[in-house]
Amino acid sequence: MKHLKIILSTFVLLVSLTACNSNTSKHTTADLAFFQCPMQCEGNKTYSKEGSCPICKMDLKQLEGTSKTIETDDISEASIFNLTSKWHTEEGNEILLKDLKGKTLVVVMIYTSCKAACPRLVADMRNIEAKIPAKNINNVQFALVSIDPETDTPQRLKAFAIENEMDGAQWTFLQGTESGVREFANVLSVKYKEISPIDFSHSNIISVFNAKGELQYQQEGLGVENKDTIETILQLSH
Amino acid sequence: MKATVFSLFTLCLMVQSIMIGQTKDMVLIEGSRYIPLYGRDSTVVEVKDFKMDIYPVTTAEYIQFVETHPKWRKSKVISLFADKSYLADWKMDLKIRDSISEKNPITYVSWFAAKAYCECQGKRLPTVDEWEYVAMADETTKDARVKPDYNQQILAWYEAPRTKENKVGQTKKNAWGVYDLHGLVWEWTLDFNSVLITGESRKDVDKDSNLFCGSAAVNATDLMNYAAFMRYAIRGSLKAKYSMKNLGFRCVQDLKEQR
Fold first, then answer.
1. A105 pLDDT above the threshold of 90
2. What's the pLDDT tens digit per position in A61-99?
3. Which residues on B lie below 8 Å from A186 (Cβ)?
C-alpha cells in the first residue's frame, strides 16, 4: 500500500509538471471587459463575465472598446509592449519591452560582428539621432536589438556602444533569447538567417514606435533618405 | 503479495499512459546532414534527432486549446498577434461553421497562435530545415527528391483546389510515418522569416542588396526543385500575424537530453 502511495504521488507530480502553464495573463483584459449577447436579446444588458445568453444561448461577445477605454493608461492591442519576452540591456539589467514605455522608440536589429550593412545601419541611426533637437531627445529612446544573442552579451554590447559613441542615456542595446528575438523580428517583419557562425543576413529596417509601443513608421533599406523617419520622430516626441 | 502485484500492475498502466501521452501521434525523426534548397554558406545543414507530429493540428484539437486559453479565442486575440481573418471559418469563440469538420486541419491561424499552441504542449514549431528534411521523403524513400514522380505529385497537389477541406491523415504515409506534409495545407515553420530570396517575393524581382545584408550569400542549390521553391517563396511572403485559409501547422519536440 505504501508503494501505491508513492506511485500515485509520483504520477500526480508528473501530471502537474507536464500540465500547461502559459495561462497567467488571461484575466488582465477580461476583468475590465463587458460582454453582451450578439443578438441583443435583452436589449443593451451587459455582463461582466463571459458566458452564453440566457435567452438565445449564443456565446456572449465582448463589447469592443470597453476594455480599452477603461484602461486609458494601458497598452493597446497593436502595441509591442504585449510581448512578454525578457531582455538584457548593455548595462546588464533585465527588462521587458514594456519598460521602454513612455518615449518614442526607434528600433533597429543588428549584430555587432557584422561587417557589411550593420555599420551603415548604425550610422543611419546615429545620423537620425543627430538630427533630433535637444528638447526632443529626452522623449526618444533608440534601441539596437541584437539578432545574435549568443555572441552579443551585455558586455559586448556595452563595448560596442562605447566604441561607436552610443553610450548616452538615449541609446539602449538589447540582448534577448533566441525565441524572443525571432518573435520580435516577426513583429517588425524583419527577416534574418544565420549563414555561418559569424554571419547573418538580415533586413535593413528602422522602425519607429510611439510612446505606447504602436508601430508608426518603417524605413527600409540602406542609405535611404532619413527625412520621413526624422519627421515622424519629431512629431511623436515634441 | 497481492498488494505488490496490484501496485506493479498500476505502475505499468501509469507508465504506459504517460509514455503514450508523450509520444502519441509523434514519430522519431533521425537527424542527418542534407542540402536544402536554401541553406547556409556551406549549403549542407545539420538536423538533429527530434520528434514530429504525424498529423497537422486538427480543428478539434484547436478548439480544446482555445477553451483553456481564452486569449487565443477569436474575439480575444489581439491585433499584434493575428490579423482580421484569424479563425475566419469559426462561427463563434468555440464553434466552427457547420461546413467544416473537426477533423479538418486547423487553418486561419497566425504564426503567434501556432507557436503558442505548440509551446503549451511542451513542443515547438519545426524549423524550415527540419520541415523540409522530413518532407523530402515519399512513401518509401527518405530522400525522394531525385525521383521525377516526387516533384510531380507535389505539384499536382499545388494545382488541386480546396484540399484544405479534406480530413487529416488521408494522404499516403511517408517513409518516416508522417502524413500530410504535402497534399493538405501549407504549414507554419518556426523560422519562416529567415530566408531571403528577395525582399518580399511578391514585390521584388531582383534581390535587393540594399534592403538585405549578406543576401548574396544565400542562393538556391537546386533550381529544378520547383515545388520546394514555391514553398520558400510562400514563406518569404508571409507575415507572422497573417491567418490564411490554407495555412496550418504541426508541432515537433526536441528529444530529452541523453540519459
1. yes
2. 776 544 433 344 578 889 999 999 999 999 999 999 999
3. 111-112, 193, 239-240
The total domain count for chain B is: 1
Alpha-carbon distance of B63 to A89, in angstroms, equals 39
How remote is the C-alpha of B250 from its chain's centroid? 4
Query: Is B134 inside any structural domain?
Result: yes
What's the rounded mean pLDDT across residues A29-46? 65
Interchain CB distance below 8 Å, B240 and A186: yes
pLDDT at A10: 57
Residue B187 included in any domain: yes
Which of A 60-89 lie inside 8 A of B, CB atoms? 61-62, 77-80, 82-83
User: Is residue B245 a part of any domain in this protein?
Assistant: yes
Contacts of A192 in chain B (CB under 8 A): 193-194
Q: Does residue B259 lie in a domain region? A: no
Cell numbers given for B68: 483553456
Q: What is the CATH number of domain A80-237?
A: 3.40.30.10
B83-131: per-residue pLDDT in tens? 999 999 999 888 899 888 999 999 999 999 999 999 999 999 999 999 9
Alpha helices by DSSP H, B69-217: 111-120, 128-135, 148-159
pLDDT at residue A61, rounded to an integer: 74
